[in-house]
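Appendix C. Worked example: Transport permease protein
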Amino acid sequence: MRQPTLEATGRRGPVNWRADRAMLVNEARLLARNPGVVAWTVVLPIGASIVLSAFPAMRAPAKGLGGLSVFEAYQPILIFFTMTLLALQALPDVLTRYREMGVLKRLRTTPVSPALLLLAQLTLILSIALVCMVVMVVVPGLVGAGWPRNLAGFLLAYVLGAWALLGLGLVIASSFHNAKVAAGLGSFLFFVLQFLAGLWLPRPTMPSWLRHISDLTPSGAAVQSLTDATSGHWPSTLHLVVLVVWGAVTTRVAIRLFRWE
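Step 2, the predicted output written as structure tokens:
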């Protein structure tokens, strides 16, 4: 018997918005009970961003960073730190655990579609990441660290970067039915993508060959696009195309591979 796919479930009919709201509230409550997730995805990046913006020396152009300050180099990395962690670790972990426990299968026997659980998870992750991004832009801006000079380019880069990372997270959740395996792969990819984003070695200091590799990854392209937009430039076509390709391909693969059971 063929298992139902995300494509098939997505054709079930109108969304029950009341059930969707209840599902979202329940998932948010469960997430709030995990202090580790809250600390790593919210407190750490926001705290680091505020601390970096509070010191004038961190806002001055730094040697070796291509004219950027330490704050300007790390703000985009911290913004996508939250999204990457949620997309590659939290999302696959929740979905694979629910599949292992039979939660998704049981939901299919109720009037509530299991697609609502997926929608609630995506909404929750996007909401948390968006709030963190706004805080990491507004608070430093208020203390004198400056604002993104190309707001349209900044928002476009953020949306495309979020799409690419969430798509990758869904591919992990779709490809593995064991929560421990999915969590392990998600953790590995998280650190790889953070390295390529410049967390330990800022992109301006990378060797050219490593920076070219970074340009082709969702984290590297997203961080550079945010950096360009913050400086007042439009994100490069290469980086935007990379993000669109990652988003489109991973979304399509996830839809084809995803199973509720």
